[in-house]
Amino acid sequence: MPDVTGGSAKSGARAGGLAQVYRRFGEGDALKTSPLYARMAIALSESPEALRVIENAPSRRRHPTVILAALHDLALSGDAPDLATAITAATAATATSISTSTSAGPSAATATSASSVPVGRDVAGLELVGAVGVGVVLRDGELVLEVGGRRKVRGDEGGRHAVLYPAVAEVARRVGAGSVGLIDVGRPAGLNLTVDRVGILYSNGQTLGVAGSAVQVPASIVGEGLVPLRAMPEVAARVVVDVEPIDVTAVDEARWLRACVPPDQVERLARLEAELALAEAAPPVLIRGGVVEVLPEAIASVPDDVLPVVITTWALSGLDLEGRLRFLQRLDEAATRRPVAWVSVEGVGVAPGMPTFGDRRASGHSIVGLGVFDHTSLHATGVGRCWLRGEMLAWLANP
């Protein structure tokens, strides 16, 4: 285990800086999204011994999101049963507290929120989780750092189904394709690829997809435009393209995705579980590499009689302008033998060749665009705007 005793003045200064990072994290964003992670971060900030353990990680692996995800992973794997028990108890108590305060009516909620303890927060349980988390770092520091050093923290891997379903169905209709091969770019777990197996309920009462699916996705409609209610064609191939694709059928990789979600975000975890189950039932082909380099291989893996549909959901912003233009060139080159479709959900002006309705860059929303490459020509149209990673949608094309 890393040495947690002694240490130079330089090490102490680093630990002091790390303490501030963990406290700011606990008192800032984490407090709004996960009281449990907030308490754990603050507890770690108050333990010089635990911080000295964390100092042994590379600088990019010391951030609270990494260490907290590693601790959650150990709880899920059974390597930290005491932490798993504390998390379960605190999460259950918080859920009970929320239910009780809601059923007790406005007066109870007001009385509780007026005190120093926010509604729905089991303080004793959270304190215990924080203390146990510090204990795991002190006891199993090497394992914590090893788990946190394996993979990137995946903030939000859920599929963008409410936006993608009508877009994929529409681009297939334009080409006249009876089946599609979906190629998910830059989403390592490929959860976009289960889009044909989910149910979607829009706020205007429209529905798409599988009514009985375990994954039911709500989405808000902005404006008067109606989403086209065309059925998804048969999905004959599912392909993931990423530098570090995730095999959702591998126990440790799927567990890491769960570990990246704070354990008190119960609804988000439940949806992730359901999406992973769908993905595990129809696992995609994984193609490792940079999108520009391996995109031709991904398109070629789709059977000749099936329309390749390349999907980018906020993936192209990771490329510079030259990389985005080369991505477009790869799509164009692949279309010399057969049509290739592109469903783009990117920030305004990020996707080259896609119309933007005249919107300005950094407008706070993204453009849903459809492209069809056929014999070196591109037919591209904007069909909508979306917000909140697809949770709000304005469909602007004629249904």
Q: Please give the share of residues in helix.
A: 40-55%
CA-CA gap between termini = 62 Å
User: How are strands sequenced across the largest beta sheet?
Assistant: 3-2-4-11-10-9-8-7-1-5-6
Q: Please tell me the total number of domains.
A: 2
Strand content: 15-25%
> Structural class, judged by helices and strands?
alpha/beta
Mean pLDDT: 89
Number of helices: 14
Shape, per Cα inertia axes: elongated
Please report the total strand number as a whole number: 11
Order of helices and strands: HHHHHHHHHHEEEEEHHEHEHEEEE
Radius of gyration: 23 Å
Main beta-sheet annotation: 11 strands, mixed
Structure description:
This is DUF2332 domain-containing protein. It holds the Pfam family DUF2332. It comes from Kribbella sindirgiensis. InterPro entries: UCP012608 (IPR011200). This protein folds into two domains: 9-148, no CATH class; 161-395, no CATH class. Helices cover 44% and strands 18% of the residues. The protein has 14 helices and eleven strands. The chain has an eleven-stranded mixed beta sheet with strand order 3-2-4-11-10-9-8-7-1-5-6, with helices on both faces. Strand 2 (199-202) and strand 3 form a beta hairpin. Helix 5 crosses helix 9.
How would you describe this structure in keywords?
alpha/beta; 399 residues; 14 helices; 11-stranded mixed sheet
In short:
This protein is of the alpha/beta class and 399 residues long.
Helix and strand topology:
Layout: H1 9-27, H2 29-33, H3 35-45, H4 48-54, H5 64-77, H6 81-103, H7 106-114, H8 123-139, H9 141-148, H10 161-175, E1 179-185, E2 199-202, E3 207-209, E4 216-221, E5 234-242, H11 251-259, H12 266-281, E6 285-288, H13 291-300, E7 307-313, H14 321-334, E8 340-347, E9 366-374, E10 377-387, E11 392-395
Parallel strand pairs: 1-5, 1-7, 2-4, 4-11, 5-6, 7-8
Antiparallel strand pairs: 2-3, 8-9, 9-10, 10-11
Helix pairs in contact: 1-3, 3-8, 4-8, 5-6, 5-9, 5-11, 6-8, 13-14
